[in-house]
Specification:
With about 350 residues, the chain is mostly helical. The chain is built from 18 helices and no strands. It has helices at about 5, 10-30, 30-35, 40-45, 45-60, 60-75, 80-100, 110-120, 130-150, 150-170, 185-200, 210-235, 240-245, 255-270, 275-280, 285-290, 295-310, 315-345. It is globular. The two termini are about 15 Å apart.
């Protein structure tokens, strides 16, 4: 949805976009499929619980990365880019529902049809990201104008105030409108953070790419360690300690935001050009639209992950899951080529030109 990215795709950022989408797959193959670790699951299999915490810590930055990329380049709304995004969403939402109807397992009652039609137009809670991002897209010109007019110092103070208040919400759960990062207001903070990081380089953002990667990796260790120790404490001292484990995996956790920013900075410092990376990056959002669809996610995606877990253990399980996630990713990208073909025909109309 960004015009500057479309004019000249930077392969390093496209590689980050691909990574972020793959991490979305990991998130949904981990906590979403198996559920958040509990005292009981830790008692039954401590090693599996530690693995869950580690892979969730590694991947929880996925959504934040997408929003930071938008802020890094700056969203410049246009008719064509907006309708391109809408068309991609509708292509998968409506297309998957039609496929669902033709399989013969759909709910053919009036209520079923109404729910299906409502879902086709992103009017259900499960497609929150589409709506939150569209709202960010609408607000982007206001955010851009603010960044252009305000001084570096005032922008810095605004960001400090925003993230301090958001962190207060994270700690106390007293400001429900942040929705733990499932909201446009949190996206606005990330967007402005990325604009500041790119426009005003400083000692914290101009570290070596190796240091950026080290910060990212240390964040994974901290999140995993706190979550696992909290679970041990919940099992041996008091169940309420599990609260700390849960909070570590919030999109508005300061550590999650920190690791999201530094993985963006890492990729921004390793420029390269590769047409295959650009090709995959251009269709990466299709992976989200495909596997999170309610007609496919729990009935197929999650079910397949659980089947793999039932058949394999340890390294074998991780390897087969990795192959499966790569397959889902590539299948979505290939399916998106149909959408791109149709869009090229539509985009040539006088209305969108």
């Amino acid at each position: 949805m960004n015009s500057s990215v479309k004019k000249k795709r930077l392969s390093n950022i496209e590689a980050l976009r691909i990574l972020a989408m793959f991490l979305v797959l990991v998130v949904h193959a981990d906590f979403y499929t198996f559920g958040d670790p509990t005292v009981e699951s830790y008692t039954d299999n401590a090693t599996f619980t530690l693995g869950q915490y580690f892979f969730e810590a590694m991947s929880i930055c996925c959504v934040n990365i997408f929003v930071l990329i938008s802020g890094w380049f700056e969203i410049r709304p246009s008719k064509k880019s907006f309708f391109n995004f809408i068309f991609q969403c509708l292509f998968f939402l409506i297309g998957i529902y039609i496929f669902y109807l033709t399989t013969g397992v759909a709910d053919y009652s009036l209520k079923g049809y109404l729910k299906g039609i409502v879902g086709c137009f992103a009017m259900l809670k499960w497609n929150w990201f589409i709506k939150a991002y569209i709202c960010l897209y609408i607000i982007a010109p206001i955010l851009n104008a603010y960044v252009e007019k305000v001084s570096k110092r005032d922008l810095m103070y605004m960001l400090i105030a925003f993230f301090s208040f958001q962190t207060y919400s994270w700690i106390t759960e007293a400001a429900a409108f942040f929705e733990n990062g499932y909201s446009t207001i949190s996206f606005m903070g990330l967007y402005l953070l990325a604009r500041y990081a790119r426009l005003y380089p400083n000692k914290l953002t101009t570290l070596s790419y190796k240091t950026d990667l080290l910060i990212f990796c240390l964040s994974i260790v901290v999140i995993t360690g706190v979550a696992y120790i909290s679970t041990i404490a919940a099992a041996n001292i008091h169940p309420k300690f599990l609260f700390f484990a849960k909070e570590m995996y919030s999109y508005i956790s300061p550590i999650v935001i920190l690791m999201s920013l530094y993985i963006l900075l890492f990729f921004s410092k390793i420029p390269f050009s590769n047409k295959y990376v650009n090709w995959l990056g251009a269709s990466s959002f299709a992976v989200f639209l495909l596997h999170t669809n309610p007609y496919l996610c729990e009935p197929y995606f999650c079910k397949h992950i659980l089947y793999i877990e039932n058949q394999f253990n340890g390294i074998g399980f991780l390897f087969v899951v990795l192959v499966y996630l790569v397959f889902v990713f590539l299948f979505a990208v290939l399916l998106d080529q149909i959408r791109l073909y149709l869009w090229k025909r539509i985009a040539n109309t006088s209305y969108l030109s």
